Structures are given as structure tokens and as C-alpha cells.
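Reagents: none. Just compute today. Protein ROOT INITIATION DEFECTIVE 3.
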Amino acid sequence: MVLLVASSSIDSGIGCWDLHTGAEHLRYKSCASPPHGLVCVGEKFLACSQLRDAAATAGSVLYWSWCKPQVEVKSFPAEPIMALASNNEGTYIVGGGFSGDIYLWEVLSGRLLKKWHAHYRAVTCLVFSEDDSLLISGSEDGCIRVWSLITVFDDGWQREAKHLYEHSFTGHNLPVTDIVVGYGGFNAIIISSSVDRTCKVWSLSKGKLLRNIIFPSIIDAIALDPGEHVFYGGGRDGKIYTAALNAKCPSSSDYGLHILGSLSNQSKSVTSLAYCSSGNLLISGSEDGAIRVWDTRTNNVIRVFRHSKGPVNNILLVQQQPLPKSQSTSQGSLRKHRPILPPALAKFENSKDEDEYTGVIIDPSGPPKESMEFSFLSSHVMDNQITELQQQGSAATEMELERLKHDYGKSKQMLQHWRKMYDNLHQFCVNELLDGNQTKNIEGNST
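Predicted 3D structure written out:
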């Protein structure tokens, strides 16, 4: 099941629907999010930054479980957080602050692992690359920067390097409004939009601008076709523009180079976009509070969802198991099956409270098993758990024992897989080095 999740900039909660059937699930309460402030963490729970007053000097980050409409965890970072992002596994949450700083928290413990100054003005966009190795940030200063997570945590490299980022793209003249990343890790493309009415296509591997596209309107949202042939730009004029990535449009185009056409239903400003490859659907959020589902093959609207009130400024598509219906499920049953959420995010680095919590969460005799959903156990901890379960000896522990053995086997297989990849890479580098030396010797002898 594909869930459509949407939030607004005013306190109207978070809407959640089944994308393909239109059925509404729980509406999550007490949410007023900035653009790019809503994220699903590892498909386990929803997190959203809160910014009720643009001039506020403090903000919060809230957590909701899938089965309860009320906020369950509240965090109060050192400054208001604009954009939020999470890696695919849900082990880290990254937030961009008003000051231009980026904060990286560990989800399991809530610890603030890293904070660094990334931009001169507020961070407006944060997105991970497909393989989670890179973090891309956009800012009100018009700059886009690419950060390698390995480099960010390498203190020795930081002392020697002139700057922390891998690339700094400075082609935009005004604030960055959205960023999307293609497939391919370090070989992917980045597409960015800005208040300067341009969308720019950047190469990660080459570190340079590939294409600059000028639009008739400011573009606030981008969605990329999975085939990477076209991308869609949501404009403040109510239109969704289709732009080509690999070819120029015909000279008869009404919009100029690279823009193939537009989708329009005379709505207000398009504030958010998402693409669903299942059915080739484009989902758009608008200032009029409507969420429209477009069939990209016919360019027609096939379904409309209505947010309770206010503009829609965030849209997520989440693969999820069917949620229990509140009408037929008791509150006690919901509490019984609801996973325990991780703790609040720490305000400062090296927080004692979060360190203590980490020690509890990985203890096999500590919290209920639901909280272990967020942990990533070492083989040593797994061995200890297996030994304890073998000593207990019941039907339930036998099932748990089998699960742990299965996880342990998968971990060992993954380790062997990485070792094999390392050996192959090492052999490849050695061969390249030998071939290069042989070529130099032959050229030297010929002269």
C-alpha cells in the first residue's frame, strides 16, 4: 500500500490517505510545518519540524507513530529547524537551521552526533543521495552544497582541508526552493529550483552545471521522472511545467528551450510535488489546500484529496502495511501494538541524558522488544541474546531465538559480501597500477 502524507504551514495537522483507493487513515494533530520539514523516518514513524512564527527564536521537532494521532515525542533543538531529512534506514535525522548550521542526530539514542556551519543563511532543503553516502543542502543564500558523510565525521581530514563540502554550486542568485537527486550515487545528477525562476541540472561526478532552464514563473517544487528523461516543476502561477533533461524541445514551444509543456487546472501556487512510479502518477500540493493526482500519460487529474484547511507545503509517499482502522480498533489494542518511539533529539552534543538512554536501549534485558526495532545490534550482543534465550526455553523464546539466528546469518553473509567486494576492488587497483607501470616502461624504452 502506498500512503500519501501531507502537511500544511498552519496548524491543521497531517493528512494521510491510501493513494490508490482514496481512503483516509488517521489525521495526525498539532502540526504546522515549514516546506521540506516533514519526513518519514525509515518508514517507522513521522517526524516534522515546527515553525509557527517566522520570527521565532526557537522551534521544535515532533514525532508521531502511525497508529496514534497525538504527538508522542517532542524535541527542542538549539534553534528553529527548517528542512528535515532521514537516511533510508532511518538511523539518522538531519536538520537545517535558521543560522545555516546543519545538525545530525542518531535516531536510536537522540544524540546530536555532529553540527557544522554549512551556509551563510537558513538551510531550506536537505536530501540524501540514493545510497545515503551524500547529503545535499540548499539555502536562502542561493548556494547548494554536497557533503560526504564519511568526510563530515573525519576530524583528521577536516583539520587539513580548506572546506568540509565536496562541491559548492553557486549558480542561483536567490534562495533555493527545492532539490531532487537522481540515481547513481556519486554519478547522479542534482536538479535545483530557485526564486530566480531557474532550474539547474548539476553533475555530481564532474562538479559542474549541465543545464540551466529559465521558467515563466518561480518554481517551488520539483519531481523527477524515474527514467530521468523529464522533470516536473511546480510554479507559483499554478502550472506544473514539464522540462526535458536530455533533449531540447521543438522550436514551436510556447516556453522556450527545454520546457515541453505544462499541466494546469487554474489552481493557486503549486507548493509541493511527488512522483509515484506505480502507475506513473504525479502528485501535487497547492496553496488552495488541494492535493491532485495526475496521470502523466494523459495529463489528466484522476483524484483530488482535500487537506482540512490551509496550503499544502509537504507531500510524502510511503510504502506501508495497512493501518488499523480507528473505528474498529480499541485504544488499548492500539497501545499494545504501537512501537515505542525513540527519545527526543538532544539540543547539544555530548548530552548525558542521551548517552544514558543509549546504554538502556541496547540492553537485552531492558525495554520491550518493540524498541529494538530501531537498534542495529553487533554480533557480540546477538550472541549474548541467543545464549540468554536458550537458557529460558519456551515456545516464545524459541521463535525469538530463530529470528536472532536468522539475523545473525544475514549479518555474516553481508560481511562476507563486503569482504569479497573489497578484495575485488583491491585486485582491480593493483592491476591498474601494474598496467600503468608497464605502459610507462614501454614508452620509456621506445624513446
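Confidence is low (pLDDT under 50) at residues 326-337, 352-379.
Action item: order primers for follow-up constructs.
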